Amino acid sequence: MEDSISDPRIQDPTVSESYAITFQLVDAGTQRAKTKLVDSDGYSYNVKLRRANAIYWQCTVRPKGNQCKAIVIQRGNDFQQGSQSHNHQPTTGAATAAIIMASVKEKAVADPFKPASAIVNEVSEYVSTVSKLFKALWLLFSKIMLSLFNVQFQCKLPICATHYSDSRVSC
After folding, report:
1. DSSP string, the chain
2. C-alpha dihedral sign at 165, 167, 169, 171
3. Of 7-21, 51-65, 93-107, minimum mean pLDDT range
């Protein structure tokens, strides 16, 4: 068979590059001010079961009839994903949203007479400032890496959505 006629190799879009998933505990991150676990992929979890040596976290996507069965097992500071995968797409910015909600609730409880709009504006300005600082640090880091190693690389962080003028760096 001729090379030009052969079927081209098609990559499976469901298979992604291997990378370490990080987990973050957000105090008062749930509607009932309980701790929420969020991962770097955009999935969030609440406590399903507490044992002496482990905490079992269940995915928060739990509609009737189609509950997501994904879990994470926490032993000390180690997190391990369960055998079931998620049956839904992740939520972009889940960690940031949980942190913002927890911060807004904390400020509302601390000052019950302050208007909700003022609290939200205050938290939003803080998050915006932190986000700009993070992006500036990322740009500085990328320029240093480029000057040292002259390599092309891409940011995998969902919070970073800025495109830089240097074609060797993309976010």
Report:
1. --TTTSPPP---TT--------EEEETT-STTS--EEEETTS-EEEEEEE-SS-EEEEES---TT-----EEEEETTEEEE-SPPPSSPPPTTHHHHHHHHHHHHHHHHH-TTS-HHHHHHHHHHHHHHHHHHHHHHHHHHHHHHHHHH---EE---TT-----SSTTEE-
2. positive
3. 7-21
Q: What is the mean pLDDT of the chain?
A: 78
Q: What is the pLDDT of residues 124-159, one digit of tens each?
A: 888 778 778 877 887 787 777 777 776 655 555 554
Q: Name 50's bridge partners.
A: 55
Q: Which of 158, 38, 157, 27 is nearest to 95 (CA)?
A: 38
Other CB atoms closer than 10 Å to residue 95's CB: what's the count?
Answer: 24
- Among residues 41, 139, 152, the alpha carbon closest in space to that of 92 is found at 41
